Amino acid sequence: MTGEFGSPSPMQPLSVGNVVSAGIRLYRSHLKDYFLLALKAYVWILVPVYGWAKFYALTGLISRLAFGDLVNQPESISEGERFVNSRLWQFLLTMLLMAIVGMGIVFGISFAFVIIGVLSAVVVGGLGQQTSLVATLLVVLIGLIVGIAALIAVFWLLTRFYLVDVPLSIEDNVDATSTISRSWELTQGYVWRILLISFVAVLITFPIQLVVQILATIIQLIFTPLLQQGNNAASVLVFLLVLALSFASGAAVLPFWQSIKAVIYYDLRSRREGLGLKLRDREI
Fold first, then answer.
1. Which partner for 128 in 99, 108, 135, 273 could form a disulfide, CB atoms 3.0-4.6 Å apart?
2. Distances from the Cα of 164 to the Cαs of 59, 78, 211, 278, in angstroms?
3. For the residues 98-110, what does the mean pLDDT come to?
């Protein structure tokens, strides 16, 4: 699909509101198809390794279908699924690489946090011999600042990999390593904007998550007498009900996130590569 979008034309950045509303319209216009694809993806999670690759591929498929609508090149589910299935093991490799990257980020920042904390304690410890209260407050303040900085760094780094599954689902000649570098390239300079979009999306999906938590609690309360008696059948039933509820809620939310990813990807490519696309001039 790369390079087939018409002549380049200048385009103003989409606002946060436009990105979120476009994601909502995309999902709403394909509610049944996207929900069933997401539910299918969650069921595949139960199958180790191969199922995990299928999950990642199917989530990418939702973004591919949404992007096809954005660029006025709609694609059938079967056609899109053939494309992502041809890269199934690349999706799995991408997952593994991102797991390694994520662990590296967390370990690196945690190590830096510990080193800075130890050095701060050593430096301030000398002051503690004279003013223990001031020294303690200073250590706490330094730890708080370092902790906030570390948290921001984690969010910033992880956001640079926000789109890793999208290029692999859409572009030609992309593999597990190049899709990661592609996400890093596209998100450069737009991390805070993507974080703001994600924050708004979290607020929108929060009621669904809240309802799910309430329903899960109600289910557990209903079966509490049987669970306290050690009824194994009741335990299995509660587990299955909560699992089904989790899968259903995940399938309801996942397409919304993948649609937003497609809009962000569309927006960033339009501005960075001058794609001749006009989202605002057409209703999805």
1. 135
2. 12, 22, 30, 24
3. 83
